[in-house]
Design goal:
The complex is a heterodimer.
Chain A (H helix, E strand, L loop, with lengths): L1 H8 L1 H23 L32 H37 L1 H16 L2 H12 L3 H10 L3 H15 L2 H8 L4 H37 L10 H9 L7 H33 L2
Helix pairs in contact in A: 1-11, 2-3, 2-11, 3-4, 3-6, 3-7, 3-9, 3-11, 4-7, 5-6, 6-9, 7-9, 8-9, 9-10, 9-11, 10-11
Chain B lengths: L3 E12 L2 E13 L4 E6 L5 H8 L7 E6 L2 E2 L5 H7 L3 E4 L13 H11 L8 H11 L16 H13 L5 E5 L7 H18 L2 E6 L2 H7 L2 E6 L2 E7 H6 L4 H8 L17
Parallel strand pairs in B: 3-8, 3-9, 6-7, 7-8
Antiparallel strand pairs in B: 1-2, 1-4, 4-5, 9-10
Classes of the chains: A mainly alpha, B alpha/beta.
The structure holds adenosine-5'-diphosphate and magnesium ion.
Adenosine-5'-diphosphate (ADP) binds next to strand 1, strand 2 and helix 1 of chain B.
Chain lengths: ~280, ~260
């Protein structure tokens, strides 16, 4: 709660949180705002935007409602972005904590794996993964997470290594605290904040990666996504640019929202540490 | 009976290819209720010795007997249980506390871990500990970040006495505090000693601080113990060059009438 207050005190945090809250509401209420399958043919093909009140943003080549696609696409983008980031953070935390606490050969081994994943461009990794296994939402989530867990793993390990040497950990040892309690009560909660601040960046990257995969036709074909809408509109970019522009704007707003939120979060954390 | 006997303790660090003998062949003893002031220039190995004693660092060689136990051979649960008898107060009044801790949780930890009082009586015991170190019981609910440096050091002392130890190691425990607060913290330590018979190993680079609390003084230089003796003797008639340098570093340490000492010698 205090963190929320600190967050809202920064302009970035307030605007970012506002954008994300609006997007979350849209995602949540998409079926209410625009009932029915967004992929169904709803009216005349290639209706320009702002001409028909029934289709405020027009229709695409097959007569599908563009606004419905964008509203429902919010769901896919946010869900895939959040799930992928969550998976990446979870894997990263586990690996980073194990490496940081175990040290020695285990640490060496795990960090070489982290190196390997950091060297391979994450988009290529996702691309290869989806091409081989086939496109569906869980596979896309996993593919994006695979390319994103290395950073949180490295950061978590660095945090553990640094906090382990602090006097308050020595003080906990001195009073005879059990090593497991030291790990989970003294070290872990203090190691988390920067990793969580990183997670917002990972969400933004995951949303972009998902859009890029969909754009290349490697997204789940059964759900509507902004990436696939942009790809769809690309074929008739000259005559109906709005088909690509609207989902593009949605994507940009989302990524900016996530980015501002993460900036606000970082500042809020930093502000707390500066407090006397 | 001797409370603590350190014999031929050694510890080397190798950093960047060259080895540093942080502690070299140090032997010393401590009696119950006694304060040994360990003095030395910065880098002379005082903290390393204190950390080995607290089992925060392994020693390379040597032995420690504490309350009749072979202290360095204890491990695991056994060690954790025995830790109740030897506590430590750190220099860094901020860094020694988990930033998420409250005053109550700082004091609750030792009571819970060593089962000093049953759960139902803990709040009362925490209030009593706070009262003993001169803080109001209402501080229990505060975040550790909301109390001042001097108060934090009082809380650190309360945490250290919570397990009823026979020895407290104080590593530069007042060096980070304002001179005005220092005297009162030292006074509190001397009071607690007289009341409970606790021994102190008081580590400091500042002879003025040690003069106020120590019965005996041991002087360290480059990892070695170069001089040990009664407080007055070391200050008024230092033998080693290291001790002479430390005495000269504190103006009017000897000539000044002993206004401050809380011990009458
Ligand atoms: N973890 C460490 N690694 C390498 N060298 C160390 C380490 N800790 C202390 N030293 C070295 O050991 C010597 C003694 O340090 P320390 O015990 O902190 O001295 P003091 O507390 O008297 O100032 C110094 O030369 C210091 O650089
Ligand atoms: Mg030191």
């Amino acid at each position: 709660m205090r963190l929320l207050r600190d967050l809202l005190r920064t302009p970035e945090g307030a605007i970012g949180l506002g954008i994300l809250a609006a997007l979350a509401l849209v995602a949540l209420f998409a079926p209410v705002l625009s009932p029915g399958d967004p992929l169904r043919i709803a009216g005349r093909a290639l209706l320009p935007p702002f001409t028909d009140p029934a289709f405020p943003l027009g229709t695409d080549r097959l007569g599908r409602d563009v606004l419905a696609g964008i509203l429902h696409g919010t769901r896919t983008s946010l869900a895939v972005g959040l799930a992928a980031a969550l998976a990446a953070i979870a894997i990263g935390l586990c690996v980073g904590l194990t490496a940081g606490f175990a040290g020695g050969l285990i640490d060496e081994g795990l960090m070489r794996v982290v190196d390997a994943f950091q060297i391979v461009p994450s988009f290529l990794l996702a691309l290869a993964f989806v091409s081989v296994i086939g496109a569906s939402v869980p596979v896309v989530v996993l593919a994006i997470a695979l390319g994103a867990w290395a950073d949180p793993a490295r950061l978590t390990r660095a945090q553990v290594l640094s906090i382990r040497e602090r006097d308050y950990v020595a003080s906990a040892r001195v009073i005879g605290m059990h090593p497991a309690e030291i790990a989970f009560r003294e070290i872990l909660p203090n190691a988390l904040p920067p990793v969580l601040a990183l997670s917002a960046i990972i969400v933004a990257a995951a949303i972009l990666t998902e859009a890029a995969l969909s754009f290349l036709g490697l997204g789940d074909p059964n759900v509507v996504t902004w990436g696939s809408m942009i790809a769809e509109g690309r074929n008739i970019l000259r005559s109906s640019p709005s088909l690509s522009i609207f989902p593009g704007i949605a994507l940009v707003i989302t990524v900016i929202g996530v980015y501002l939120f993460s900036e606000g979060l970082t500042k809020a954390f930093a502000g707390r540490r500066l407090e006397p | 009976m001797t409370l603590l006997a350190i014999e031929n303790l050694s510890k080397r660090f190798s950093s960047g290819g060259r080895a540093v003998a942080a502690v070299g062949d140090v032997s010393l003893t401590l009696e119950p209720g006694e304060t040994l002031g360990l003095v030395g220039a910065s880098g002379s190995g005082k903290s390393t010795l204190a950390r080995i004693l607290m089992r925060l660092l392994p020693a390379d060689a040597g032995s420690i007997r504490f309350e009749g136990e072979d202290w360095l051979s204890l491990s695991g649960t056994d060690l954790r249980r025995h830790r109740a008898r030897m506590q430590m107060v750190f220099q860094d009044v901020l860094g020694a506390f988990n930033p998420r801790a409250t005053v109550a949780s700082v004091l609750d930890d030792p009571l819970r871990i060593h089962d000093i009082v049953p759960k139902a009586g803990r709040a009362q015991e925490i209030a009593a500990l706070l009262d003993r170190v001169g803080l109001p019981a209402s501080y229990a609910g505060r975040s550790i970040r909301e109390v001042s440096g001097g108060q934090r050091q009082r809380i650190a002392i309360a945490r250290a006495i919570a397990t009823k130890p026979s020895l407290i190691v104080l590593d530069e425990a007042v060096s980070a505090l304002d001179v005005s607060i220092r005297g009162r913290i030292l006074e509190l330590l001397v009071e607690l000693q007289e009341e409970r018979g606790i021994s102190y190993l008081f580590v400091s680079h500042d002879l003025a601080v040690l003069r106020a609390v120590s019965h005996r003084i041991a002087v360290m230089e480059a990892g070695r113990l170069v001089e040990t003796g009664p407080m007055r003797q070391v200050i008024e008639n230092p033998q080693s060059p290291a001790a002479k340098a430390l005495v000269n570093a504190v103006p009017r340490l000897v000539t000044q009438p002993t206004e401050g000492p809380f011990h009458d010698v």
